[in-house]
Structures are given as C-alpha cells and as structure tokens.
C-alpha cells in the first residue's frame, strides 16, 4: 500500500490497546475513528489475502453490542470498510461470540465487533479478527501507523448485505447440550447486555426451568455494571438463586464473551474453579490433552488438570494470547481467571460465555451431587483477590524487570512468562504489568492464613525495593 493523500487519520494513542481499540465516546473515540478503522482494516485484510483469490473483494463480518453509541459507530465502520472495497456482512446487534461464529461459518477474510465489553456505558470499542485469528498487539499499533500515514488501498466502492445468523448460532450452541434426564433450575443474569434476545431464544429451547434477569438490552446498564467477575455485580443473581433454590446461576458480561457462575448455595465459582470443573469433563473425551490457563489461576487448577490426566500449561494473561497459544498447540480447552472460556473440543476455539454455560449445564445435569459439593471438594486454599494498583505506563514494565532480577539473584523459584510468579513453600505470589492499563496486578495464594501473610510481606518488600507502596490486601477469598 502507498500513501493516499485523500485519507489520513490519527487516533488518540490511548485507544490503541493490546487486544482492541477502545475509548470514551465523544472524548477519545469518535465516529471518524470508526470510519478510519474500517478504511484501514479493510486495506490490511486485502493485503493479507492469498494471491490465489485474485481480485475478489475482501469480506468482513461486522456486528455491534447494545451500547447507545454502537449503531452510529457500526454505520461509520461499515462506510470505511466499503470505501476500501470490502464486501461487508452486517450481522446486526448481538453478542461478540455470535459475530465470531458468523465469521467462522461464512469464512470471511476478517471481522470487526463494535463493543465496549464490560466497560462503563460511555465507553465503546472494536474487537477484530484477521481470518480465523485474533487481531491484536503489534497489529493494532500498525493499523494506527498505517492510518496516520494514509497507507491504505485506493478508494473503491464496496458492498454490503445483511445476514441473520442468530437462529443458526443458537441452534449450534444448543446442539452441544449433553445433560441427562435431570431437569435443572437455572437463573441467568444478562446484565442488560448484548446477549438479550439471543439468550432468551437459547434458553427457550433448553431442558429445564430458566429465569433470565435483566434480559432487555440497555446500554445504560441500569441494574448493575456488566462484569460478572466482580462479586458486587453478582449480588442480584446470588439473591435470586437463593430465593428460588435454583441449581446454579450464570452471569454474562456486556458482550457475552465472559462468564460468571454461582452454585446452588449462591457461592461464587471463581474462574479457575469453573475451569477445573470444565477441564475434567473435556479430559474424559480427550485424555492426556494440553489444557491452558493464565498465570493468575490457582495452583489448584493446574493440580486438578494433572490429576484428571491432562497436561496443564500456564500461559500469559490476555484472551488473544490464550487463543493464539491454544491454536498453536491444538489444545481442546483453555480459560482465564477473567471468565474468558475457550472450547476447541466440539467448538471453534473462541471465547463464548453462552457456549461455556451450555457445556456447564450438561455437566451439572449429569452430576449426582449439587454443584456446591463439587466446589467444596476442591482443595482449600486462601488467596487474595486480583489486586490492581496504579503504576505509570513508562514505569510498570521496568518495575517487573527490577523485581525479576532481584528474585533470580536470590535464587527464588520464578515463572516469568508474564510478569513474575514466585513459588514458595507457603504457596505463590504474582506481580505482572497490565497490557491494557497503567496498573500493576498482584495476587497471592497459600495453604494457610499464616502462609498468605508471609507471601504478602514478601510481595510488599519487593514493591518497596522498587519505590512503590503495597496495594490494599483486604478481602481474601478464604477457601478458594
């Protein structure tokens, strides 16, 4: 591509993030940005197509979530894609995994989802796929550079058509239900997110009783913030599970690619506990398979994978990074503490909260005990929640390097694939730099409260040695 004098666009730098493009609508993210993303991304897609496909127009699937700003941004995005000659398949409003499904089954050259995910209502953004792979990291930075230099394909007149994959997607998700005769009582919390209509159609076709809270798509999120990994946002779901004595509750984030789960007592299954339940089931069909989890996951998960006959692999945090590693190793299952769950076993390898929920329901329906008994049977540990504290972008990775050098000099047992995860006789502690924010992330886990205190003291010493104060360690998840 050569510079195009008729087009040049500079993005607010803070919007070009590791896994997506995201900002505050009207402040750091505008309609012009959406057009520029379309114009530039379609140019990248065109350049990535095999020469054997000749001069055919590149195809890009587009979807959008339920945020108030999404329709306008989607329209501008489509205009930009068409201005680079793309054939645009407009999937419409719905969950992000439905767009992934459309791109996969329609075999498009690329895909863009307009979504602010689990962020506050005034945020929005864009998640992208190039072929069947996530578009992230250096690729997003390069998109920004190409837009600023005007290096795009010559202006052309593309095309668009609307496609409705919702019924096919719902049927495909439901087809992997594998429960027995037990009829479950399930409470779902859509959180006013983008799954709305799709979720209601899905549960109407599943066995058992299903109650959907906050089913209406509303980009103001009047009930609560659409992030089910934060315990406060699960309070309504927990209360309804307890009131109705349901078998379990399932929460979705704003674009339904992350899941939260509570058991029949209303206790939260944290991401690694959920992964343990799901991984065991996958390993029954795929004995010896590699199962991937991120560095924030409990040691209990890795031990449970090994106990079930799998090969646990610890990898970097980040849904795009996990997906890429999963594809590289042909792993059938992976997950993150943040609630991104990835099935390549009978599914397509992308993160999908609705699909993960259906697989979980099948497992619970086949149990001869309640889900709470499965959770209680996991080895008990004491740990901190994920602790996030401010650290300037120019300093955060340097701090990690300083800590790593000191630890290695002292002969510590360190895993350094993503920050530093330090193993000790008490348990482990983690310090890593966020890829998306000016923060450091810490976590610690031990087999006893006393051990956890020692881990927190060691983490504090390392932070202080780099001139930082320790985060607030209150709120341990005792028993998890």
List the helices and strands and how they pair.
Elements (H helix, E strand, L loop, with lengths): L20 E4 L6 H18 L10 E6 L5 H14 L3 E7 L2 H10 L4 E5 L8 E8 L2 E2 L3 H12 L9 E4 L3 H9 L10 E5 L6 H9 L4 E5 L21 H10 L3 E5 L6 E4 L5 E2 L1 H15 L4 E5 L4 H9 L3 E5 L3 H11 L3 E3 L5 E3 L9 H14 L4 H7 L4 E2 L3 E4 L2 H17 L3 E3 L4 E5 L2 E7 L5 E8 L2 H17 L11 E2 L2
Parallel strand pairs: 2-3, 2-4, 3-7, 8-9, 8-10, 13-14, 13-15
Antiparallel strand pairs: 1-5, 4-5, 5-6, 10-11, 11-12, 15-16, 17-22, 17-23, 18-22, 19-20, 20-21, 21-22
What does this structure look like?
This protein is an alpha/beta fold. The chain folds into three domains: 13-164, Alpha-D-Glucose-1,6-Bisphosphate, subunit A, domain 3 (Alpha-D-Glucose-1,6-Bisphosphate, Chain A, domain 3, 3-Layer(aba) Sandwich), CATH 3.40.120.10; 168-377, Alpha-D-Glucose-1,6-Bisphosphate, subunit A, domain 3 (Alpha-D-Glucose-1,6-Bisphosphate, Chain A, domain 3, 3-Layer(aba) Sandwich); 382-478, TATA-Binding Protein. 36% of the residues lie in helices and 22% in strands. The chain has helices at 31-48, 70-83, 96-105, 138-149, 166-174, 196-204, 235-244, 271-285, 299-307, 319-329, 353-366, 371-377, 393-409, 449-465; strands at residues 21-24, 59-64, 87-93, 110-114, 123-130, 133-134, 159-162, 185-189, 209-213, 248-252, 259-262, 268-269, 290-294, 311-315, 333-335, 341-343, 382-383, 387-390, 413-415, 420-424, 427-433, 439-446, 477-478. The strands form four sheets. Strands 1, 2, 3, 4, 5, 6 and 7 form a seven-stranded mixed sheet that branches. Strands 17, 18, 19, 20, 21, 22 and 23 form a seven-stranded antiparallel sheet that branches. Helix 1 packs across helix 2 (70-83).
């Amino acid at each position: 591509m050569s510079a195009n004098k008729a087009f040049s666009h500079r993005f607010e730098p803070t919007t070009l993030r590791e896994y997506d493009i995201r900002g505050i609508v009207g402040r750091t993210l505008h309609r012009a940005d959406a057009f520029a993303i379309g114009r530039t991304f379609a140019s990248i897609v065109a350049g990535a197509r095999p020469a054997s496909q000749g001069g055919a127009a590149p195809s890009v699937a587009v979807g959008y979530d339920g945020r108030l700003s999404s329709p306008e941004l989607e329209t501008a995005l489509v205009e930009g894609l068409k201005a680079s000659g793309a054939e645009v398949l407009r999937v419409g409003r719905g969950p992000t995994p439905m767009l992934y499904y459309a791109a996969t089954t329609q075999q498009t050259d690329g895909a863009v989802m307009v979504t602010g995910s689990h962020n506050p209502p005034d945020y929005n953004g864009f998640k992208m796929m190039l072929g069947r792979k996530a578009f992230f990291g250096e690729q997003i930075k390069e998109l920004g550079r190409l837009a600023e230099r005007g290096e795009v394909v010559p202006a052309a007149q593309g095309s668009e058509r609307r496609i409705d994959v919702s019924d096919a997607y719902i049927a495909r998700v439901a087809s992997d239900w594998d429960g027995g005769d037990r009829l479950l009582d399930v409470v779902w919390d859509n959180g006013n997110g983008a799954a709305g209509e799709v979720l209601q159609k899905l549960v109407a076709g599943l066995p058992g009783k299903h109650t959907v809270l906050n089913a209406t798509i509303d980009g103001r999120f009047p009930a609560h913030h659409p992030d089910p990994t934060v315990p406060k946002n699960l309070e309504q779901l927990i209360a309804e599970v307890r009131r109705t004595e349901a078998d379990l509750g399932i929460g979705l984030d704003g674009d339904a690619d992350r899941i939260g789960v509570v058991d029949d007592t209303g206790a939260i299954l944290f991401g690694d506990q959920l992964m343990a339940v799901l991984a065991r089931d996958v390993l029954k069909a795929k004995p010896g398979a590699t199962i991937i989890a991120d560095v924030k996951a409990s040691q209990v998960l890795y031990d449970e994978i090994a106990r079930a006959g799998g090969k646990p692999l610890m990898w970097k945090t980040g849904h795009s990074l996990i997906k890429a590693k999963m594809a590289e190793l042909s792993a059938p299952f992976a997950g993150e503490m943040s609630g991104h769950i990835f099935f390549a076993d009978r599914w397509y390898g992308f993160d999908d909260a609705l699909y993960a929920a259906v697989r979980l329901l099948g497992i619970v329906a086949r149990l001869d005990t309640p889900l709470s008994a499965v959770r209680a049977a996991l080895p008990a540990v004491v740990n901190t929640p994920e602790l996030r504290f401010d650290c300037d972008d120019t300093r955060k990775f340097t701090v990690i390097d300083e800590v790593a050098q000191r630890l290695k000099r002292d002969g510590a047992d360190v895993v350094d694939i993503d920050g530093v995860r330090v193993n000790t006789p008490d348990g482990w502690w983690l310090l890593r730099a966020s890829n998306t924010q000016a923060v450091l992330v810490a976590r610690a886990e031990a087999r006893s409260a006393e051990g956890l205190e020692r881990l927190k003291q060691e983490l504090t010493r390392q932070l202080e040695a780099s001139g930082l104060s320790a985060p607030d360690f209150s709120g341990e998840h005792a028993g998890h």
